[in-house]
Amino acid sequence: MKKSLNFLVPFIFFLLISCEPAEKAPVYPSGEGFFILNEGNYLAGNGSLSFYSTATKEIYNDLFNSVNGRALGDIPSFMATEGNKGFIVVNNSGTIEVFDLTTLETLGTVTGLDSPRQMVTREGKGYVSSLSSALVTIIDLEKVQVSGSLDTGSPSEAMVIAGGRLFSAHWSGGSSITVSDLATGGIISTIATGLEPESMVLDRYGKLWVLCTGGWMGEEIPRLVRINTGTLEKEAEYLFRTVDDNPSSLTCNAAGDTLYYLDEGVRRMPATAGALPAEVFVAAGNRLFYKLMIGPGGLIAVTDAIDYQQRGDLLVYNSKGELLDTEQAGIIPGYMLYMKN
Amino acid sequence: MVQRSPAYIVPATVQRLPLSAAVLILFVLFSLTARAQDSFEEDTVNISAITVTAPASARLAPWSVVRVEPDLISRNNGGDVASVLQSASLLYVKRYGNHGLASVSVRGLSGSHTLVTWNGLPLNSPGNGYADFTIIPVMALSSVRITSGGADLEDITGYIGGKVELGSDPEFDAGRMASVSLNAGSYSQYSSSGTISFSGPKTSIRLGAWAGAGRNDFRFINEDAPGGPAEERRSNASFSSGGMTGDMAYRHGKSQISAHLWYNDSDRELPGPVTTVQQDFGERQTDRSLRGVVKFSSEQGKLSVGFMTGITGDINRYYHQVPDYNGDNSSVTFSARLRMGYRITERTLLVLHAGEAAERAGSMGYEERETRNIFSFSAGLRSNPLPRLNLLFQVRQMAVSDMKVSPEFTAGTTWMVTASGEHLLRANFSRNIKLPCFNDLYWIPGGNSSLVPEQSTGGEISWSFVTIASTAARNTLDLAIHASHVSDMIQWIPGPSAYWQAVNLRSVNVKGAEARAGTERLINDYRLSGYLNYAFTRSVIADSDIPNDRSAGRQLIYAPLHHANLNFGIERRWFNAGMAAAWESRRYTTSDNSEWLPAAFMTDASAGATITSGHIRINTELKVYNLFNISSESVRNYPMPLRTVNLKLTLTWSEKSKDHEEIP
After folding, report:
1. Which end of chain B, N or C, is more open, meaning fewer C-beta atoms within 10 Å of its C-beta?
2. Which residues of A fall within a CB distance of 8 Å from B636?
């Protein structure tokens, strides 16, 4: 009997070891790369998450669904990170999906948001803009729940935090930037810009650059506005060529010294430039560029949604504007976020 | 109904209970005064042919025309037309969930390519080109006729995919009749309807009303639930609807005039996709419409004349918890159509049509109320130079405000293979067009006023077989193959400003084969019927002006390659039972066919009993939808219910018995 027990002990031990949950293999490779949010079709709820590895030069699609067994939602429009957590703003689902950046496993879902658009983070809090509400929702990033709101006086899209202040752009039908004090929640100032400030970015010199599309009916000539985040004064304003120009997706490199945007392709300009670039850096050719991202070393990634009813393309260029790779992403590949290991 | 903030509730939904009560009281009074007259025979066998056949005259048309059996329509009078068409025709119904928006497409094209008429009056919205079949109650109809393809050029304007003609045809010499129907179903779905009719040899009057509502929080399988597929309940999907119809007709000799009125009112919540948590954003839609038609027809010697004039007014409102998102759309369409037929010789008939449609629509997406006039003239020559041969040649020219439209034509023939007409061969070749809708032209942003009409060129060959035996047995078989090329398809794509715009950019090749087989027979006391419909439709994008487009050669989205349904019915004395099964193959949801909905198989079953006593007849029916509890979606992430049941009770008083019908 004792012999039998002796025999059983290692067997049971082996069984216990065997039953331990095996460490899950990551669904995308380690190393640098960037996430791509595929918006999916409006009301279809088929948004998805992709990752492009700059190491393997391959794209990994439908990651969120693969890991969590469910779709991401309807129109994932923006992504932010805090520590090892990823936050995907799902616009038409009114949610924020929170997940582990390593395993991509869900950590929770913030629900009940009113047309959330973008998100910036600071000191354990997430600030979420809204296309339809004048309130910026505050998320407790640790508890993954709504903890408050900030009244910016108008719906908002792009946001930047600088010097303890939240700069929120009133995009849809608007023409201003609201500056809010994050400590008190009060509005400090409202800065007039051009019509429909679509995107904005903070350069290394502390200047806020705002790209205004001029309105969807071409009401005025688009413009690029530079704002001093200290004085909150408009310092410079660069007009585009005509009301028919359609610039979008203003961003900058990691060093913050070069601005990039889409306008008949990819254009770039030093943050110290005194005029808009006359030449296209990467011509769109027969592509219709949709979104733009700049990675380390001048890496350029743009998406092409083709007919918006099929899987779109991701195009990756080097700092010289030479095409490095073309990959097929999900449906309507949009916002991209670079991740360093 | 769910509770709603009063801020975005319009208190118009339900003055329908009083409506139902009025109908019920009217019925009771009417039936009491008319009791104790003729009685039904106790051993009457009721005929309830289920599915689609073509009337004799339509068989001679060189294109496929089928008619949904009136009994099937009357047996579904608690439901909507979409359900009837899905289970008993070759049409594909695309539904945003139970009681959600539904469109019907023919031969692989979209719902906006299907012309829908009611007593000849077009119902398609000038705004988006669609007709929502969910809010067309079966109650408002007595006939449904389906024409596949756009070869029939007798309408004011064409729709290239096909045509669904809804009618509330007068019935003469049927005496007085009244009926009340009550329905109760799963998930708090209730409806009631009532009709009264008076008809003599020359006059016919019919009044009807209905009302219904449901919480509609049905069970479904959420394939995207965290942790894998899970059973959930739909939320924010309640509905209510109601309406009234009135039909009057007078005939004298070979002349007939009729007037038809239809008021419809519906209020639906609009639930979102179920891929994430179901949330309530207060989205709902109300649709109100008032339609009126006057028709006249006469035949004198070699001349026949027909005239139809009507008007339809629709108000569609969309509500969201954020009032800025609310939508307000309205449209009015006035239509008038004149038909003249003149028999030139014994073997040749000239048919002329002239029509005018004045469309007016307003939307928050338009700069102003938009209007359009469409005048069209068509001429057709029908001839049978040989006893078994029929030839048809039609041309139509439209004159449309601010748009250049090329002429359309159809050439067709039918050949009676056998002298009795049991076997018939049909063929046609046609070029027809569909005009852009107002949203395509005027929506801001993206509307494109320089769009040209979509054009379809193609043809069809079919063989039709029917036998009707003296024993009332009937066998039918129809086989058709068709092919067409649609160019200048309109699609919304993002423009350089990232706002979407409508452009003519794709062409589509459609080819397919269709089969319809049916049998009805009487065996002892049992009346059996069985019908099978099958369609193979390959509708692929032939080419595209979009750079790097991978959709060329791919099947259009939401156009199943295979669609089939089977209906079976049995009746004996007071008992009847039936089963309807519909199968649709994979439906792609992306234009490169990289994603799709799996094949769907739905089976409904019903059993009922009819008790007659004097002039009173009581019908009860228990119907089980989705008998096998199969999870399915018609539109991606808008699930259809798992198994549901419905109980219907119909009380009918009739001055004359109608239960002794012969199979036509």
Report:
1. C
2. 44-46
